[in-house]
Protein backbone atom coordinates (compact mmCIF):
# COMPACT_ATOMS: atom_id res chain seq x y z
CA UNK A 1 0.00 0.00 0.00
CA UNK A 2 1.02 3.60 -0.61
CA UNK A 3 1.60 6.43 1.83
CA UNK A 4 0.17 9.68 0.49
CA UNK A 5 1.30 13.05 1.84
CA UNK A 6 -1.10 15.78 0.71
CA UNK A 7 0.14 19.38 0.68
CA UNK A 8 -2.39 22.20 0.35
CA UNK A 9 -2.06 25.40 -1.61
CA UNK A 10 -1.73 28.95 -0.33
CA UNK A 11 -4.07 29.99 2.49
CA UNK A 12 -5.35 26.42 2.91
CA UNK A 13 -4.88 23.64 5.44
CA UNK A 14 -5.37 19.90 5.68
CA UNK A 15 -9.12 20.48 5.54
CA UNK A 16 -8.89 21.21 1.79
CA UNK A 17 -8.40 17.47 1.20
CA UNK A 18 -11.15 16.34 3.59
CA UNK A 19 -13.27 14.81 0.80
CA UNK A 20 -10.34 12.93 -0.80
CA UNK A 21 -8.70 11.46 2.31
CA UNK A 22 -11.42 8.89 3.10
CA UNK A 23 -11.50 7.75 -0.53
CA UNK A 24 -7.78 6.96 -0.44
CA UNK A 25 -8.02 5.36 2.99
CA UNK A 26 -10.95 3.22 1.87
CA UNK A 27 -8.65 1.82 -0.82
CA UNK A 28 -6.26 0.72 1.92
CA UNK A 29 -3.68 3.50 1.78
CA UNK A 30 -2.14 5.62 4.53
CA UNK A 31 -2.85 9.34 4.12
CA UNK A 32 -1.31 12.38 5.82
CA UNK A 33 -2.92 15.71 4.91
CA UNK A 34 -0.72 18.54 6.16
CA UNK A 35 -1.29 22.04 7.40
CA UNK A 36 1.94 23.90 6.73
CA UNK A 37 3.81 25.99 9.28
CA UNK A 38 2.38 29.48 9.51
CA UNK A 39 -1.06 28.36 8.32
CA UNK A 40 -2.34 27.00 11.63
CA UNK A 41 -4.92 29.24 13.32
CA UNK A 42 -3.10 29.34 16.67
CA UNK A 43 0.37 30.30 15.39
CA UNK A 44 1.99 33.55 16.47
CA UNK A 45 2.99 36.34 14.12
CA UNK A 46 6.69 35.49 14.43
CA UNK A 47 6.11 32.01 13.09
CA UNK A 48 4.08 33.32 10.17
CA UNK A 49 6.65 36.00 9.39
CA UNK A 50 9.61 33.60 9.25
CA UNK A 51 8.00 30.60 7.50
CA UNK A 52 9.36 30.18 3.99
CA UNK A 53 9.58 27.51 1.29
CA UNK A 54 12.37 25.70 3.12
CA UNK A 55 10.19 25.62 6.23
CA UNK A 56 7.33 24.04 4.31
CA UNK A 57 9.57 21.47 2.61
CA UNK A 58 10.79 20.68 6.12
CA UNK A 59 7.19 20.00 7.20
CA UNK A 60 7.03 17.25 4.58
CA UNK A 61 10.42 15.84 5.51
CA UNK A 62 9.44 15.77 9.18
CA UNK A 63 6.40 13.66 8.29
CA UNK A 64 8.62 11.27 6.32
CA UNK A 65 11.06 11.06 9.23
CA UNK A 66 8.47 10.55 11.96
CA UNK A 67 6.71 7.80 10.06
CA UNK A 68 9.92 6.24 8.72
CA UNK A 69 8.24 6.51 5.34
CA UNK A 70 9.75 5.49 2.03
CA UNK A 71 8.15 5.06 -1.39
CA UNK A 72 5.86 8.01 -0.64
CA UNK A 73 3.51 9.76 -3.03
CA UNK A 74 3.60 13.53 -2.54
CA UNK A 75 0.58 15.46 -3.80
CA UNK A 76 0.81 19.24 -3.96
CA UNK A 77 -2.05 21.56 -4.84
CA UNK A 78 -1.29 24.99 -6.35
CA UNK A 79 1.53 26.53 -4.23
CA UNK A 80 1.96 23.03 -2.76
CA UNK A 81 3.67 22.05 -6.01
CA UNK A 82 6.61 24.22 -4.98
CA UNK A 83 6.70 22.44 -1.63
CA UNK A 84 6.67 18.87 -2.91
CA UNK A 85 9.43 19.63 -5.43
CA UNK A 86 11.61 21.17 -2.71
CA UNK A 87 10.89 18.26 -0.36
CA UNK A 88 11.60 15.60 -2.98
CA UNK A 89 14.96 17.26 -3.65
CA UNK A 90 15.96 16.72 -0.02
CA UNK A 91 14.19 13.41 0.64
CA UNK A 92 17.08 11.13 -0.26
CA UNK A 93 15.14 8.82 -2.56
CA UNK A 94 12.19 8.30 -0.21
CA UNK A 95 9.69 9.74 -2.71
CA UNK A 96 8.38 7.44 -5.44
CA UNK A 97 5.82 9.72 -7.04
CA UNK A 98 5.04 13.42 -7.37
CA UNK A 99 1.56 14.60 -8.30
CA UNK A 100 1.19 18.31 -8.99
CA UNK A 101 -2.54 18.99 -8.65
CA UNK A 102 -3.11 22.13 -10.73
CA UNK A 103 0.14 23.22 -9.17
CA UNK A 104 3.41 24.94 -9.90
CA UNK A 105 6.22 22.72 -11.18
CA UNK A 106 9.35 24.76 -10.53
CA UNK A 107 12.72 24.60 -12.17
CA UNK A 108 15.88 25.49 -10.27
CA UNK A 109 15.88 29.10 -9.16
CA UNK A 110 12.17 29.69 -9.70
CA UNK A 111 9.72 30.82 -7.03
CA UNK A 112 5.98 30.92 -6.80
CA UNK A 113 6.29 34.65 -7.46
CA UNK A 114 8.35 34.21 -10.64
CA UNK A 115 6.26 31.27 -11.87
CA UNK A 116 2.84 32.85 -11.63
CA UNK A 117 1.11 35.56 -13.65
CA UNK A 118 1.04 39.29 -13.04
CA UNK A 119 -2.56 38.96 -11.86
CA UNK A 120 -1.48 36.80 -8.94
CA UNK A 121 1.62 38.83 -8.16
CA UNK A 122 -0.61 41.86 -7.76
CA UNK A 123 -2.91 39.83 -5.50
CA UNK A 124 0.05 38.80 -3.32
CA UNK A 125 1.16 42.42 -2.95
CA UNK A 126 -2.34 43.66 -2.16
CA UNK A 127 -2.89 40.87 0.35
CA UNK A 128 0.32 41.66 2.22
CA UNK A 129 -0.33 45.37 2.69
CA UNK A 130 -1.77 44.97 6.21
CA UNK A 131 1.25 43.21 7.74
CA UNK A 132 4.05 43.17 5.22
CA UNK A 133 4.75 39.50 5.93
CA UNK A 134 1.46 37.61 5.47
CA UNK A 135 -0.82 37.58 2.42
CA UNK A 136 -4.46 37.69 3.39
CA UNK A 137 -6.70 35.38 1.37
CA UNK A 138 -8.80 36.83 -1.46
CA UNK A 139 -12.39 37.80 -0.74
CA UNK A 140 -14.90 34.96 -0.53
CA UNK A 141 -13.98 31.31 -0.28
CA UNK A 142 -13.73 29.04 2.72
CA UNK A 143 -13.64 30.90 6.06
CA UNK A 144 -11.02 28.47 7.36
CA UNK A 145 -8.36 30.00 5.11
CA UNK A 146 -5.47 31.73 6.87
CA UNK A 147 -3.04 34.49 5.87
CA UNK A 148 -0.17 32.89 3.97
CA UNK A 149 3.52 33.59 4.77
CA UNK A 150 4.78 35.96 2.08
CA UNK A 151 8.37 34.69 2.34
CA UNK A 152 7.29 31.25 1.11
CA UNK A 153 5.87 32.76 -2.08
CA UNK A 154 9.04 34.77 -2.75
CA UNK A 155 11.79 32.25 -1.94
CA UNK A 156 13.45 30.59 -4.92
CA UNK A 157 13.66 26.82 -4.91
CA UNK A 158 17.04 25.09 -5.07
CA UNK A 159 16.88 22.00 -7.24
CA UNK A 160 19.45 19.61 -8.71
CA UNK A 161 19.00 16.45 -10.74
CA UNK A 162 17.80 14.71 -7.56
CA UNK A 163 14.17 15.70 -8.08
CA UNK A 164 14.33 14.40 -11.67
CA UNK A 165 15.13 10.95 -10.28
CA UNK A 166 11.66 10.57 -8.74
CA UNK A 167 10.31 7.59 -10.72
CA UNK A 168 6.82 8.95 -11.43
CA UNK A 169 5.90 12.59 -12.03
CA UNK A 170 2.38 13.70 -12.91
CA UNK A 171 0.50 16.92 -13.50
CA UNK A 172 -3.26 17.36 -13.17
CA UNK A 173 -4.56 20.28 -15.20
CA UNK A 174 -7.91 21.75 -14.17
CA UNK A 175 -9.45 23.16 -17.33
CA UNK A 176 -12.60 24.68 -15.85
CA UNK A 177 -11.07 28.07 -15.07
CA UNK A 178 -9.08 28.76 -18.23
CA UNK A 179 -9.84 32.48 -18.09
CA UNK A 180 -7.72 32.79 -14.92
CA UNK A 181 -5.41 29.78 -14.63
CA UNK A 182 -1.66 30.44 -14.54
CA UNK A 183 -0.95 26.86 -15.63
CA UNK A 184 -1.82 26.75 -19.37
CA UNK A 185 1.76 27.15 -20.60
CA UNK A 186 3.01 24.77 -17.94
CA UNK A 187 0.58 22.11 -19.10
CA UNK A 188 1.85 22.44 -22.68
CA UNK A 189 5.47 22.16 -21.52
CA UNK A 190 4.88 19.07 -19.43
CA UNK A 191 2.68 17.40 -22.04
CA UNK A 192 5.63 17.58 -24.44
CA UNK A 193 7.99 16.06 -21.87
CA UNK A 194 8.06 12.23 -21.97
CA UNK A 195 9.10 12.13 -18.31
CA UNK A 196 5.73 13.58 -17.28
CA UNK A 197 2.19 12.24 -17.39
CA UNK A 198 -0.51 14.88 -17.78
CA UNK A 199 -4.13 14.42 -16.73
CA UNK A 200 -7.01 16.80 -17.46
CA UNK A 201 -10.00 17.44 -15.22
CA UNK A 202 -12.84 19.77 -16.30
CA UNK A 203 -13.08 21.46 -12.91
CA UNK A 204 -12.12 24.71 -11.31
CA UNK A 205 -8.87 25.07 -9.40
CA UNK A 206 -9.97 23.15 -6.29
CA UNK A 207 -10.52 19.79 -7.95
CA UNK A 208 -10.15 17.89 -4.69
CA UNK A 209 -13.22 19.69 -3.40
CA UNK A 210 -15.23 20.00 -6.62
CA UNK A 211 -14.61 16.46 -7.87
CA UNK A 212 -13.08 14.39 -5.05
CA UNK A 213 -13.96 11.04 -6.63
CA UNK A 214 -12.29 11.94 -9.94
CA UNK A 215 -9.27 13.38 -8.12
CA UNK A 216 -8.93 10.28 -5.96
CA UNK A 217 -9.30 8.06 -9.01
CA UNK A 218 -6.26 9.68 -10.64
CA UNK A 219 -4.27 9.38 -7.43
CA UNK A 220 -5.24 5.70 -7.27
CA UNK A 221 -4.14 5.15 -10.85
CA UNK A 222 -7.55 4.98 -12.47
CA UNK A 223 -10.01 7.43 -13.97
CA UNK A 224 -13.54 8.36 -13.00
CA UNK A 225 -16.14 10.11 -15.10
CA UNK A 226 -17.32 13.50 -13.82
CA UNK A 227 -21.07 13.79 -14.19
Describe the structure.
Helix content is 33%, strand content 17%. It is α/β, with parallel strands linked by helices. Helix 4 links the parallel strand 3 and strand 4. Helix 3 packs across helix 4. The chain is globular. The model has no long low-confidence stretch (mean pLDDT 96).
Please name the defining characteristics of this protein.
single chain; 10 helices; 6-stranded parallel β-sheet; Rossmann fold; 227 residues; two-stranded antiparallel ribbon
Estimate percent helicity: 25-40%
User: What is the CATH topology?
Assistant: Rossmann fold
Gyration radius over CA? 16 Å
Strand proportion: 15-25%
CATH evolutionary superfamily: Alpha/Beta hydrolase fold, catalytic domain
Class by helix and strand content? Answer: alpha/beta
Offer a concise description of the structure.
It contains 10 helices and 8 strands.
Strand and helix layout:
Elements: E1 3-7, H1 21-26, E2 30-33, H2 45-50, H3 53-66, E3 72-77, H4 80-90, E4 95-101, H5 112-115, H6 118-127, E5 134-135, E6 148-149, H7 150-154, E7 168-174, H8 184-191, E8 197-201, H9 207-210, H10 212-219
Parallel strand pairs: 1-2, 1-3, 3-4, 4-7, 7-8
Antiparallel strand pairs: 5-6
Helix pairs in contact: 3-4
Amino acid sequence: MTTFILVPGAWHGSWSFEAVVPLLERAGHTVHALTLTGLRPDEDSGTVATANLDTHAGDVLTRLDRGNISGATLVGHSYGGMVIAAAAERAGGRVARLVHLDAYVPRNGESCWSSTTERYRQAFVAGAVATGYAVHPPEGGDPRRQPHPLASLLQSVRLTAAVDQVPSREFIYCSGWEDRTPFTELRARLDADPQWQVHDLPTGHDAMREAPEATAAILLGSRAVIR
